[in-house]
Structures are given as structure tokens and as C-alpha cells.
Specification:
This protein is of the alpha+beta class and 335 residues long. It has 2 domains: 160 residues, no CATH class; 129 residues, no CATH class. The radius of gyration is 27 Å and the shape is elongated. The C terminus is likely disordered. The structure holds zinc ion. Zinc ion binds next to loops.
Length: 335
């Protein structure tokens, strides 16, 4: 049964190492991963007698959770993978991954490989310090601080706080705050609303994300149309619609339509992730079409037109050969 235990520890360690990489790369604040042992335990138990199998299960529930994951910066020092004979290997371990993360430093501004440079683990750190009062932590609890540096620019380190609660690992902190890569088609002047929307969404604050995304749309349209003051979002977006090249309007997702759809969960105070995801996709498409057809933000171009018409003009189809935009349209490679 020693073999089964050793195998299970190695399996858990490999899982924790692999999932930690995904947690840092793909997940966001307050997200997590859980290691599910059900299948592997079933498999391992098959080769055991009923008595051994019962003991194995009891050990998994009562003893194994007490074991701590030791952390390693490099694989080389221990290389416990596959070796079952050595007595020096730790019970459970995590080799810190080299995740691909967005680097916000001037020279990078894109995803780069980050190298672990330092770490602490709270429960083990506490054990080495003489404190006036004995601190005891519950079984299966660990708290890791992981410090990383961009391999390319060797800029300021970034830190992550990861909490282990039995077999679940939570990403509960990061310094600095997560930054997101903003697509090129997002106008620079309103870019911060857009990136705040994504960071809020990634952190589980969907209502805030909906609000930032709607603000992004409204502020962009205000700048383009020159409308300030008390005009409603709908009025501003109607005016914005008038600024679009006639022969492109029908292909572009309507910002007004999505402004209204974003308003519904905002008025209801509802965390509607689906509306956010769909709205972002449509809004992205709208701005990408602007980029492809080089609709360089024509300041105030048609604001007066729209006002005099006094109503939405959406849905109007125009012949493809409208001269209005043809001089700036690259005909190859649309969208
Ligand atoms: Zn960098």
C-alpha cells in the first residue's frame, strides 16, 4: 500500500503544479481549482484487498489532508517525479510553473514568460519563528505568496497570493492589480473604461463590468458627436449612428442596441454575465469594423444632422457604392 500512497502523492503534486499554472495564466481574482481524486483513488484501490482498500481510503480522509505541499522554484533539486525509492522526497510538492502573463512594462506590453523568483508559505514560515503564542492552523490549510518576474524585461516583480483549502486552491490576491491587453481597435481616449470593464468582470464584479462597458460606449459616442450635458445615452447614440458611413451601417452591430441591452441588468441590479459577454463581442466587432475601414473618429461630423432628424435611423440599408467613405476604404481584407 506504500506504493499506492506514493503514487497518489506524486499524482496530486503533478496536478497541483499543472493547475497552478492555469490558475495564474487563465483565471482571475477569487477564482480557483479543485483537484478531484475520485477516479485515481478508484483505480488505485482496485489492486488492493478489501482490508487494504479500506485502510487506504481512511488514510486519504484522515492523514493525507494533514500533509503540506512543499514548494520548489526548480524541478532539478528534487526531481521526485517517477522516483518512488528515495526517502528524501517531500510528501506533496508543487514546482512553481513559468506562466505566460501580460507584462505591462514599456518594452513589453504583451504576454511574456514569467519566472518564479521567490515564495513564502505561511504555515511553514510560522513554524520557523518563535512566537509568544503557539499558532496552530487547521489541516489542509496553506497560504502561498509567489513572486514572479518577466523573463524578457526583468522589470518589477509581481506577486500572487494563493490559498489552499484542502484540495482547492484559490487565487486571492495579486500585486499589482491584473492588467489586460486591450485590442488595438479600442480608442485610446476611452481605453480605461474598456479595461476596467474586463478587470471587473474577471474579478466577479459583473454589475460594475456592465456599467464600465456601457460608459465606454457612451463616452466614445459623446466624444465623436460632441454631445455633452444632459442628452440621454439613446440620443447620443442616435447621433453617433448618423456619423457612420451609410454603406457600412447595416453590417456593424448597433452600439445603441447594445447600450440598451446593457442598461437592462444595470436597472435591475443584476449580475448578468451573459449580457456582458454578448455585448462585449458585439461592441468589439463594431470597433474592429471601424478599424478595418479606417473610420478615423470624425469629430462632431454629423451631430447636427441627427438632431434635426430627431429620431433613430437604424436599419437603413445603403448601396455598396456610396462615395462617402470610399476614399478611405481598403477593399481587400474586410473584417
Ligand atoms: Zn516584461
Amino acid at each position: 500500500m506504500t506504493d499506492e500512497r506514493t503514487y497518489l502523492r506524486a499524482w496530486l503534486s503533478t496536478q497541483a503544479t499543472q493547475e497552478l499554472k492555469k490558475l495564474l495564466e487563465e483565471k482571475h481574482l477569487y477564482q480557483k481549482f479543485t483537484i478531484d481524486m475520485t477516479e485515481i483513488v478508484k483505480k488505485l484501490s482496485k489492486g488492493l484487498t478489501t482490508r487494504d482498500s479500506n485502510m487506504f481510503i481512511t488514510w486519504i480522509h484522515s492523514e493525507l489532508p494533514k500533509e503540506k505541499f512543499s514548494v520548489f522554484l526548480h524541478q532539478l533539486s528534487l526531481a521526485p517525479r517517477g522516483s518512488t525509492t528515495t526517502h528524501t522526497q517531500p510528501q506533496l510538492w508543487i514546482t512553481l510553473p513559468h506562466p505566460s502573463l501580460y507584462c505591462n512594462s514599456k518594452g513589453c506590453k504583451r504576454r511574456e514568460t514569467f519566472t518564479p523568483i521567490w515564495f513564502t508559505e505561511l504555515s511553514q514560515a510560522i513554524a520557523t519563528v518563535v512566537t509568544p503564542k503557539q499558532v496552530s492552523l487547521p489541516d489542509g490549510f496553506q497560504m502561498f505568496t509567489l513572486v514572479y518576474q518577466c523573463q524578457r524585461c526583468l522589470g518589477k516583480p509581481e506577486a500572487f497570493l494563493v490559498r489552499r483549502d484542502l484540495w482547492t486552491f484559490y487565487l486571492e490576491g495579486r500585486s499589482p492589480i491584473e492588467r489586460v491587453e486591450v485590442p488595438k481597435f479600442v480608442p485610446e481616449k476611452e481605453e480605461h473604461y474598456y479595461s476596467d470593464a474586463i478587470v471587473a468582470f474577471n474579478s466577479g464584479k459583473v454589475l460594475a463590468a456592465l456599467f464600465y462597458l456601457r460608459t465606454f460606449v457612451e463616452q466614445f459616442a459623446r466624444r465623436i458627436t460632441g454631445k455633452t450635458g444632459r442628452a440621454t445615452g439613446e440620443e447620443i447614440l442616435d447621433a453617433y449612428y448618423e456619423t457612420l458611413p451609410v454603406n457600412r451601417k447595416s453590417d456593424m452591430p448597433s452600439l445603441r442596441e447594445w447600450y440598451e441591452k446593457l442598461s437592462v441588468p444595470l436597472h435591475a441590479g443584476k449580475d448578468d454575465a451573459e449580457v456582458f459577454t454578448n455585448a462585449k463581442e458585439a461592441i468589439d466587432k463594431h470597433f474592429d469594423i471601424r478599424r478595418v475601414f479606417r473610420m478615423d473618429e470624425p469629430e462632431r461630423k454629423a451631430a447636427t444632422n441627427a438632431e434635426s432628424k430627431g429620431g433613430p435611423a437604424e436599419g437603413g440599408k445603403a448601396p455598396e457604392s456610396q462615395p462617402e467613405v470610399s476614399q478611405s476604404i481598403p477593399t481587400e481584407n474586410p473584417v
